[in-house]
Write a structure and sequence with these properties.
With 253 residues, the protein is α+β, with helices and mostly antiparallel strands. Helices cover 45% and strands 19% of the residues. It contains 7 helices and 9 strands; from the N terminus they run ααααβααββββββαββ.
Length: 253
């Protein structure tokens, strides 16, 4: 049981106990006092422990000792109440956290014009294959801006996030890695790859990474691109490849 759920459950138990305490306990009442005491005792145990077979048996014994008929029905009712209370508390906490993150993101998110270097690299990738999608994405590029956080550190970053208006013509599939990628080499000879991601049918982000697949299996080698390069490549250095039917990259013809 999570801390949030445990706190909500305890609050629910306290409220339930208070409600039961307000119920009349004379002999003409529909709910006898021993039931109130038994349910309160069982709820108190549930509030501080996770359910288990041993705990379940102990609660049942307490209810029976208190003279409660059908103790497992009361136990089931208490369990359902705790789950509902915990679920509601978790949902409320999640909504509050998501809203706070969204507000914080909106406050710190900024946009600026794309640098000529980024625009030229992306233009080279999109022009490598004369397809309908490429023409649509070139149209998006004409109105795209860079999206960034105002606390981003100065200096080179091998990933650029795009902001594209919602009224552009979108490509299908809406979520994909664009099939044309560009290869080149870092000054030390390490093969690098520039790839474009599409999200919701629009330009999402352009990034540089190590081209060799073994790189992604070596945890110590991840995120070393910034140590290899300090600028976007010259489009003349790029060798564009297109993903083939078998998933292999083939030269663009």
């Amino acid at each position: 049981m999570s801390p949030t759920r445990r706190r909500a459950y305890r609050a629910g138990v306290a409220a339930t106990t208070a409600w039961w305490a307000g119920v009349t306990t004379d002999r003409s009442a529909l709910i006898p006092a021993n039931v109130v005491a038994g349910v309160a005792a069982g709820a108190a145990v549930l509030a501080v422990s996770d359910a288990s077979e041993a705990l379940d048996a102990r609660i049942v014994r307490r209810l029976v000792t208190a003279g409660v008929r059908h103790p497992r029905r009361w136990l089931a009712a208490a369990s359902v109440a705790s789950v509902l209370a915990g679920y509601a508390a978790d949902r409320a906490a999640a909504r509050a956290e998501a809203q706070a993150l969204e507000e914080m993101g909106e406050e710190s998110m900024r946009t600026r014009a794309l640098t000529p270097a980024v625009r030229e690299v992306l233009h080279a990738i999109l022009q490598a294959a004369d397809t309908a999608d490429a023409q649509l994405l070139l149209g998006q590029l004409a109105v795209a801006r860079e999206s960034y956080f105002d606390d981003d550190a100065d200096g080179f970053c091998p990933t650029v996030e795009f902001q594209v208006p919602d009224d552009v013509v979108r490509v299908v599939p809406h979520h994909q890695t664009y099939p044309v990628r560009a290869r080149y080499h870092a000054p030390d000879g390490t093969p690098l790859q520039v790839s474009l991601q599409i999200a919701e049918g629009k330009l999402s982000h352009l990034s540089i990474d190590v081209a060799e697949e073994d790189h992604f299996e070596d945890k110590d080698a991840i995120d070393v691109v910034e140590e290899l390069i300090d600028q976007w490549p010259d489009p003349a250095e790029l060798r564009c490849l297109r993903e083939g039917p078998e998933g292999h990259l083939l030269p663009v013809t």
